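Hello again,

I reread your note about wanting to compare the complex against the isolated chains. To keep things tidy I'm splitting this into two emails, and this first one only covers the full assembly. Below are the input lines as submitted, including protein chains and any nucleic acid or small-molecule components. They are followed by the predicted structure of everything together. The single-chain runs will come separately.
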Amino acid sequence: MNKPVWVKMRHCWELYLMVLLPVVYLIIFKYTPMFGVLIAFKQYNVIDGILGSPWVGFQHFEAFFRSPNFWLLIKNTLGISFYSLLAGFPIPILLALALNEVRSRLFKRTVQMVTYAPHFISTVVMVSIIILMLTPHVGVVERLFQLLGLPTTNFMGEPGLFKSIYVWSGVWQEMGYASIIYMAALASVDPALYEAARIDGASRLKKMIHIDFPALIPISVILLILNLGSVMSVGFEKIYLMQNPLNISTSEVISTYVYKVGLLNANFSFSTAVGLFNSVVNLILLVSVNFVARRISENSLW
Amino acid sequence: MRTNRIREPFGDRVFLAGIYLLLTIITLIVLYPLLYIVSSSLSSPRAVVSGSVWLFPVELSFKAYERIFHSTQLMLGYYNSIVYTFFGTLINVTFTVLMAFPLAQRHFYGRNFFMILMMITVFFSGGLIPTYLLVKNLHMLDTRWALWLPGAMSVFQVIVARTFFQTSIPSELQDAAKIDGCGDTGYLVRIVLPLSKPILAVMSLMYAVGHWNAYFDALIYLRSEHLFPLQYVLRNILILNSTDPEMLANTHQQLRDQGFEQVLKYALIVVASIPVLLVYPFVQKHFVKGVMIGSLKG
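Full-complex prediction:
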């Protein structure tokens, strides 16, 4: 076992050859941009490049913290995140628990097939569906509301409704697919537990509460940590497409702001500073949530 | 058979009925918008605008689809998307296997180093602007490479594949292969890959769907119209409302007013989503495997 290093390395030269391509990829496309983050502390200009541009310290960060947009962006980003989490986190768990009770294979497969499908719809198409359905006068939602005697409005133009539209369309799209992981956890429950519960006269509801639900806790905690670790990064793609001048006051989040300031206004350094602030906060959140979870539940990422 | 079965208690039967009812409602809620879109795309503009479409097509018409298949812009987008998806997925799967396989080998000296090298990129990243500047400096702006290379490998997929190689392929196979004079490359190509078809299928589907549905990279990296993928073209038509004049040409002004654009949009949604929705049921049975393996620690 205690062979010299070069013998061990010679033994797996083929593996080094394989790993070469991915490693070059990681260095070029992942590590070089990390180094490019330096421009957050510089006044970047194209002529001098990343290294040559003059240092400005924390000027861009200060400018961002002081800007009137700062609190609005934080409020919108966190508001959308927590709303998504509150609605989007429990529903897949409930769906998995319910599906687990179903004995008819055909019924189960049909429900799964249908509820997974929207996951594969692209963001562009998803947002188009939302807009088409909510179009004033012709959209199906307005007609449904009228049928039920509910008040209607220009849904996409109402700042107060933006979060709800974003979150519930997300639930519609992802609940089925998100339940897969919980279904898998339920499939690995020891059948002896059910038999024991049955002999003791437990009802289906009791079995669900005392056997199925505890089986889901470890995986739920891990997913919750991951979700909480990214509350500051709301996906850019969907929000950006859903934005319009009428709802911008509630729909502007950090990622869309970074894009607009950085690439549309070519304010590279400022935008990178905002992005860096965002990822630092995310990392701190992830580490601290993981720490708390390890303390109270013995389930953690590391 | 029936007589031997113990009847479930009344409470349980009510509970079960409630669950079936709930699941039926959820399924209908998911299904209805999808059906509505397909039906609207097959209805006449007048029926769509007047709001008489509820569930089934009214005044069946295929005009919107005809127009779509006659639009050069859209067909070019379709072609571009196929190119991006096919070669993009090929690159993705190659890189992922090349990274995951060595990481799964116990005799790979420096395994932890490479693992850490990869995991760091999960927690730290340069962000949008530095990545954009890199692509620019590599002169890949406005080329197909900008859509293939920056996202050539997903760490999540590497971990899924590595865990599969480690747990689902017995190490005795490797010992046997070695005795027969098979090196690491031969072992990967002749034994591991043929045994990994399910995981490769799920991986390919995930990557392919990602490429097919992506618009963001095109938004930031591409400028030339002949390179635009379908999703980007769709975004311009569906969300920014810049309709391809070619599609509306030769349409009566009256028809246009009656909302031919609306029908066209519904049809576009169907045309763009069909390829993915047709493929996914075939791979669906492997999903659980793909998801579950990835969630294992270590």
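For quick reference: Chain B touches chain A through 91 residues (CB under 8 Å).

B.
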